[in-house]
Amino acid sequence: MGVNVTGDEAWMRYAIRLAQHAEQQGEVPVGAVLVKENRCIAEGWNASISLHDPSAHAEIVALRSAGVALGNYRLIDTTLYVTLEPCVMCMGALSQARVNRLVFGATDPKRGAVCSALALADARFLNHQITWQGGILADECAALLKDFFRAKR
Question: Which of 12, 16, 85, 87 is the most buried if burial means most Cβ atoms within 10 Å?
């Protein structure tokens, strides 16, 4: 990895490329990249189908890889960029990992657990609060998903 990019939009473009990779593998096109000190620590894309693992969302794949890379499950002072608003499972994992900041592209009105269906980013019962920003390159991120599901139907 070791990729060094600058700015939220640049990192989101990186995550979009990862989502495109997922789509090429027949997975739902979601990509995630974990950044610390403006360097890529880990990356992931949806792999639930190929790994036969319901927990292999892009965020979880990236968190697992980052834990190994840093030798610690606590991913302090990191930012996760992901093309789709995280679900309940992923928000729980982000909190447990102590990710500092979350940046996502498209919202997920039905399953999004940051600010759409649920507002877990602001939940006081979680052991760690994550600052977040949504809507970065949202149209591009949403188009990936719409095109994918349209082609499946």
Answer: 85
